[in-house]
DNA sequence: ACCAAAGTTGCGTGCCACGCATCTTTGCGG
DNA sequence: CCGCAAAGATGCGTGGCACGCAACTTTGGT
């Protein structure tokens, strides 16, 4: 990867990170793109060369994570049963990467509160969900490859992708909702087991 | 229902309808809020007393439809098996209401094309998905009631709601994708059957 | 070392979301 | 039947955002 692409990725990451941090600190509409650009050391106009909107910048990290699920699925051994592979591919995205270690959160509770406020913003909810839709297309393609189904003809791969992402976001939403917190891995595993069992009504 | 509420509902419907029609005709960013307000016979400022954004106005009818799923589920006989009730509640929203009959579409193909262009708009995708999220909360509550589960403690009702809406939107998306079109009812039924069966990998 | 392509920046424009103050309509209690 | 409080509609003004356009700068292959 040349200097060009590396710099671009860095700027993108810096902008997204700045957008998230400032929004968690101050709230969505007390942050101007000008502020974000300044925090990332770039001109305000450049912001829109990377992201179409403030919301998109904030959702970018989430999008990246979701897209990696499809990539991980392709990396899994083809012999592995589909649902085992899917659940592992999702769980693999929940190990904290190096960028989290680099920027340790000072006040855990304050951060969580800020996150919750941030996600309450309508524009951002839409943006996060849209990221899910983009990732869904990728995942559906990967599922189609693995199962030998056809994206254009069959409902199956789309349905599986949608179900997987729905299970993931339901589990993480439940995680943000519960107090005291239940481990995410546990919730994800439970969700996948339920879906794979056809979500039978509890007796 | 008094004159007051009726008028309000009418204005809301008129605004949403005008927003959709104009957007399908001209495209999202060739329609100004001013135009929508004018078409609905109301002042531009009033538009924002009903909707927070242009996108919200367009997605409003979709939201209404989705919210009715939860209402329909509550109306179903409690003895009915859960998944039967859910699939019927969804299918019930696909009978054309009186407002469709009142405004017959002149050119079917042109309308479909406009719809597709409209739904390609990022802002609207987000808005449509957000409507789904709102409806999901309602549906989860209805599911919790019916199954005796707890919204705060159990993952189950949220998961079922998410799966149902995911299946619905996947089916309708597939409908918009297929050419020649497959009936929506068929796709919906197939989707529900697959989900209830745990989405087994095709042999 | 040069040059085309890619990326950044400044400027200007149209529109949008929304706060606030004012005017109009509604429907209820006397 | 009437007047009055509450709800809603409207006009105006403001801050900010998305984006087109036209320089200017950096990159990396030849």
Explain how this protein is built.
2 copies of one chain form a homodimer. The first copy, chain A, is mainly alpha-helical and 203 residues long. Chain A has a domain of 138 residues: Tetracycline Repressor, domain 2, CATH 1.10.357. Chain A has 10 helices and no strands. In chain A, α1 packs across α2 and α5 packs antiparallel against α10. The radius of gyration of chain A is 18 Å and the shape is globular. At the A-B interface, α8, α9 and α10 of A face α8, α9 and α10 of B. Chain A binds a DNA duplex (30 and 30 nucleotides) through α1 and α3.
How would you summarize the topology of this molecule?
The structure is a homodimer of 203-residue chains.
Chain A: H1 3-26, H2 33-39, H3 44-50, H4 54-75, H5 82-91, H6 98-102, H7 108-120, H8 122-147, H9 156-177, H10 184-196
Helix pairs in contact in A: 1-2, 1-4, 1-7, 2-3, 4-5, 4-8, 5-10, 8-9, 9-10
The structure holds a DNA duplex (30 and 30 nucleotides).
Tell me what the CATH architecture of the domain at 59-196 in chain A is.
Orthogonal Bundle
CATH topology of the domain at 59-196 in chain A: the name is: Tetracycline Repressor, domain 2
Beta strand % of chain A? under 5%
Helix-strand category of chain A: mainly alpha
> If you compute it from the alpha carbons, what radius of gyration of chain A comes out, rounded to the nearest whole angstrom?
18 Å
**CATH superfamily grouping of the domain at 59-196 in chain A:** Tetracycline Repressor, domain 2
Number of strands of chain A: 0
The CATH class name of the domain at 59-196 in chain A reads Mainly Alpha
Tell me the quaternary state.
homodimer
Distance between the termini of chain A: 56 Å
- The chain-level mean pLDDT of chain A equals 93
């Amino acid at each position: 990867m040349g200097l060009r692409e590396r710099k671009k990725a860095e700027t993108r990451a810096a902008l997204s990170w700045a957008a998230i941090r400032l929004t968690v600190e101050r709230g969505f509409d007390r942050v101007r793109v000008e502020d974000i650009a300044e925090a990332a050391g770039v001109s305000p106009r450049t912001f829109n060369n990377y992201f179409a909107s403030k919301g998109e910048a904030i959702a970018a990290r989430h999008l990246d994570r979701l897209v990696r699920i499809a990539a991980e699925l392709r990396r899994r051994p083809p012999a592995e049963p589909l649902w085992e592979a899917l659940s592992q591919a999702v769980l693999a995205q929940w190990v904290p990467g190096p960028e989290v270690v680099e920027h340790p959160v000072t006040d855990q509770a304050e951060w969580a509160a800020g996150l919750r406020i941030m996600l309450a913003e309508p524009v951002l909810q839409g943006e996060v969900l849209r990221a899910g839709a983009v990732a869904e297309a990728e995942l559906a393609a990967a599922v189609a490859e693995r199962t030998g189904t056809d994206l254009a003809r069959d409902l199956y791969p789309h349905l599986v992708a949608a179900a997987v992402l729905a299970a993931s976001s339901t589990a993480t939403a439940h995680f943000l909702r519960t107090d005291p917190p239940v481990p995410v891995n546990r919730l994800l595993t439970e969700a996948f087991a339920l879906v794979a069992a056809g979500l039978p009504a509890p007796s």
